[in-house]
Design the sequence.
């Protein structure tokens, strides 16, 4: 298989314009002859579905929740980046591009990142016009804040609920198109598989989660906007329903999966409190603007935070990275927190966190300012922990949060399966080995509003408007496979619950393929995961039937796919003999303990081909070149 | 702590439902309410029973999926929080808890504690948006918005669409939900061109879905996890009155033409 990223030639500043000009267009009167399936209704899915419908295509949009408004993009708190330079602090498209490539530790595709930076400004314009109530200054202009990995203030925000507001903007645009009849919305509908006809993605198999009915849908192209796979760790900041099924089923049908080991462990989450823990809650990274991170210098410190004198505190990020301080990128902040806890200096009852302290900011700015900036986050923290962060420092610890890896796509966001497009977190393209804060919202919306609606037209124009026959044997075959899988899960009638398997898998992954990885650990995980998978299929207990609403069955189906993905993640992590961004191998670090890349051997995207369950996947490489942001050791000192 | 739970079980929309008594043992005070139900569900599954179906997703109070009536109060005893943000430290050993789904004609029960809130989507489809096409927009800073308007709009926009307002209202009215969207967009310059049509269409859809009218009980505000003020209902009523006078008759004329 030849991996062609289809990056346009010429100077990077002109690539997207050039590509847009090359793209074939579908004449406005012909657009209504094309059907497009969009799976997922988060930022990427909703914005794509709405934009495609506005253009005139017939769109079917699928979501597993009861409404498109509930997609997990809604939980993003901090903000969205745009290179507007409204603060007059030296920002530019070029700087956003540069920061993102560097922040991704040189494992992303330069051309994609440049386009993302370019489009960031259009996104802000769009979102403001939709009536999103962004934070304003007294003069009525948009306000900005700063975020990790950048030295300019380019992050726009709507209190601590930016993701919610952006999603509702996209959701409302989508509802507007549902009202016109151009989008048909299928809620409580889970995609179980993708259908290929003559090698092209031509439809999907879907389970109606209320009636249990499994049906097929045909279209000219399929767009996956199904998010990331952090829930492979069981405990993550993702919503409980987030899953890899759509992307994994596409992978099994031929879509290469790129850099699966690039996962982001977010530094500012509330530490777990017990074995009943069902998810971890993120506290926005924006808190690091005004909070100072520290641990006691002394191991096993018995005193409460307030009684530990200044000179017995270790503000380790400020000490190690004087110029970025508490605003170092996420991967670094997370790894340093792990080090602090592993060294016996963790805080809290379970000694599993570090302090994020607002004492000094409250003194400097007053409680009112802090309340205005972070009020809802502080409340959220207090509700969960029972502690008041205005009085005692927050306790935080890293948690799986985002996955940079995902389905391999070319510059047009098409996977290696023709007609199968993958957008938002579900693809691999823009964040390299580490995503900077406030960039996920930017990417989801750039893909959905401004990239896919153009690039998909080129594909559609080339395949022509002839409809796929929904009676084609491929649809029936894939549907039967999906039905059989459901029957098998229900028929096993074993002893262990779905969640008990999921927790065990999560434990293995967090331990062996989490913030720090090494060859013996990964090798062990690669042995244990297939055993667990085998045990799952032999001993899982899925109560109820497949003919009605059955949440255990939904979870079991998702876990079955996580159990396959987990092995691929470990294999990818083991093969990548270097440390970069969120992928930290104990064997590869600088004398100061920073990630040490191996650009000679690993400056490539690892795109894996599925060869069967339990069979070693085949590696394909997309070489990465850095023409505009010269390769260098990342430094935030 | 040990608790006694009375949980509403209903196999399907048409089946007859009823309360079933469960004992929840050794509940940890740091666990969330939904985690307490998770643990109970694990035990039910292990015992060969069918677990309780309830809606949930983000579990951090923002997606709006979860919603359970706990001892007659939507989202339970904690002010300004969704069910998923309620922790067991609010209960004590021996407490008895009655757990029910939202009760409203427009929110039919699908199974156990899970209801169909599709009506909310249809209300938004009736006009809860600004009609802008992707791309055809001015620069983000071209239109100034006074900070107080933006802040007030944000108060309204924080609605998570959970439906607790409907569940709490004796009339099962959706006025707080509708007024939050009408209020948000009505406070911003971007929302002005469609302001009057929006309120007419959204209220008409609300009525068509079978939600009741607002008679100023204020129960909605009291249970709203985002503490959205009923002042927005007053704003809606002002817009509605104006629209009824200015737009509705014009429409009748336009319709006749």
Sequence:
């Amino acid at each position: 298989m030849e991996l062609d990223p289809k990056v346009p030639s010429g100077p990077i500043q002109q690539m997207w314009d050039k590509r847009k000009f090359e793209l074939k267009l579908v004449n406005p009167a012909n657009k209504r002859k094309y059907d497009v399936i969009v799976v997922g209704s988060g930022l990427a899915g909703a914005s794509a579905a709405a934009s495609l419908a506005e253009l005139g295509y017939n769109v079917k949009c699928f979501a597993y929740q009861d409404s498109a408004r509930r997609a997990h993009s809604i939980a993003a708190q901090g903000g969205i980046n745009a290179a507007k330079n409204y603060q007059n602090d030296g920002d530019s498209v070029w700087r956003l591009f540069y920061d993102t490539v560097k922040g991704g530790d040189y494992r992303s595709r330069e051309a994609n990142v440049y386009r993302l930076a370019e489009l960031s400004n259009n996104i802000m314009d769009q979102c403001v016009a939709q009536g999103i109530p962004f934070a304003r200054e007294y003069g009525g202009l948009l306000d900005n804040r700063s975020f990790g990995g950048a030295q300019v203030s380019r992050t726009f925000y709507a209190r601590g609920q930016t993701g919610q507001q952006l999603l509702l903007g996209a959701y409302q645009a989508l509802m507007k198109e549902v009202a016109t009849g151009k989008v048909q919305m299928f809620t409580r509908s889970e995609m179980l598989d993708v259908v290929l006809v003559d090698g092209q993605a031509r439809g999907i198999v879907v389970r109606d989660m209320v009636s249990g009915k499994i049906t097929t849908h045909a279209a000219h192209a399929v767009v996956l906007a199904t998010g990331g796979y952090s829930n492979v760790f069981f405990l993550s900041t993702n919503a409980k329903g987030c899953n890899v099924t759509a992307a994994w089923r596409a992978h099994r049908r031929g879509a290469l999966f790129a850099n699966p080991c690039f996962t982001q462990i977010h530094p500012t989450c509330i530490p777990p409190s017990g074995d009943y823990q069902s998810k971890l809650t993120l506290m926005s990274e924006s808190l690091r603007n005004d909070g100072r991170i520290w641990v006691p210098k002394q191991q096993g410190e018995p005193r409460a935070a307030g009684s530990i004198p200044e000179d017995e505190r270790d503000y380790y990020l400020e000490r190690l990275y004087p110029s970025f301080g508490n605003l170092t990128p996420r991967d670094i902040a997370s790894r340093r927190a792990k080090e602090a806890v592993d060294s016996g200096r963790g805080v809290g009852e379970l000694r599993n966190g570090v302090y994020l302290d607002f004492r000094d900011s409250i003194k400097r700015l007053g409680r009112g300012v802090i309340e205005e900036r972070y009020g809802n986050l502080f409340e959220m923290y207090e509700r969960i922990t029972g502690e008041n962060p205005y009085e005692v420092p927050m306790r935080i610890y890293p948690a799986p949060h985002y996955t940079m890896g995902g389905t391999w796509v070319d510059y047009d966001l098409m996977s290696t399966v023709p007609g199968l497009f993958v957008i938002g977190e579900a693809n691999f393209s823009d964040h390299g080995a580490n995503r900077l804060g406030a960039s996920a919202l930017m990417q989801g919306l750039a893909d959905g509003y401004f990239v896919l609606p153009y690039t998909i037209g080129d594909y559609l124009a080339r395949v022509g408007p002839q409809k796929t026959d929904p009676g084609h044997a491929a649809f029936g075959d894939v549907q039967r496979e999906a039905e059989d899988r459901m029957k098998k899960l229900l028929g096993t009638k074993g002893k262990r619950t779905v969640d008990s398997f999921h927790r065990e898998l999560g434990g293995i992954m967090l331990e062996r393929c989490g913030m720090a990885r090494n060859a013996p650990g990964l090798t062990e995980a690669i042995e244990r995961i297939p055993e667990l998978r085998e045990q799952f299929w032999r001993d899982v207990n899925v109560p109820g039937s497949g003919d009605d609403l059955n949440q255990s069955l939904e979870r079991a189906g998702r876990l079955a796919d996580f159990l396959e993905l987990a092995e691929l993640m470990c294999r990818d992590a083991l093969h990548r003999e270097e440390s970069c961004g969120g992928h930290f191998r104990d064997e590869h670090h600088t004398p100061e303990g920073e990630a040490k890349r191996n650009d000679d051997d690993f400056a490539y995207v690892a795109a894996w081909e599925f060869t069967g369950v339990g069979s070693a996947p085949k590696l394909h490489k997309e070489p990465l070149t850095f023409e505009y942001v010269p390769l260098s050791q990342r430094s935030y000192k | 702590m040990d608790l006694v739970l009375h949980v509403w079980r209903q196999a399907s929309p048409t089946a007859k439902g009823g309360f079933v008594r469960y004992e929840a043992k050794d509940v940890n005070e740091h666990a969330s309410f939904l985690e307490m139900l998770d643990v109970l569900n694990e035990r039910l599954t292990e015992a060969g029973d069918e677990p309780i179906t309830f809606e949930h997703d983000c579990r951090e109070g923002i997606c709006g999926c979860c919603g359970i009536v706990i001892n007659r109060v939507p989202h339970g005893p904690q002010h300004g929080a969704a069910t998923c943000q309620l922790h067991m430290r609010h209960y004590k050993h021996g407490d008895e808890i009655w757990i029910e789904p939202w009760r409203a004609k427009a929110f039919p029960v699908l199974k156990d504690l899970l209801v169909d809130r599709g009506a909310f989507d249809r209300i938004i489809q009736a006009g809860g948006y600004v009609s802008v096409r992707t791309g055809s927009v001015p620069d983000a800073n071209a239109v100034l918005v006074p900070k107080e308007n933006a802040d007030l709009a944000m108060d309204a926009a924080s609605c998570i669409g959970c439906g607790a307002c409907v569940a709490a209202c004796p009339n099962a009215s959706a006025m707080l939900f509708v007024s939050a969207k009408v209020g948000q967009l009505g406070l911003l310059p971007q929302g002005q061109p469609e302001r009057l049509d929006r309120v007419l269409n959204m209220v008409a859809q609300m009525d068509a879905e079978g939600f009741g009218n607002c008679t100023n009980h204020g129960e909605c505000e009291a249970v709203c996890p985002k503490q959205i003020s009923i002042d927005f209902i007053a704003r809606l009523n002002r817009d509605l009155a104006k629209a009824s006078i200015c737009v509705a008759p014009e429409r009748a004329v336009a319709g006749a033409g």
Chain A touches chain B through 84 residues (CB under 8 Å). Chain A has a mean pLDDT of 96. The longest helix of chain A spans residues 551-575.
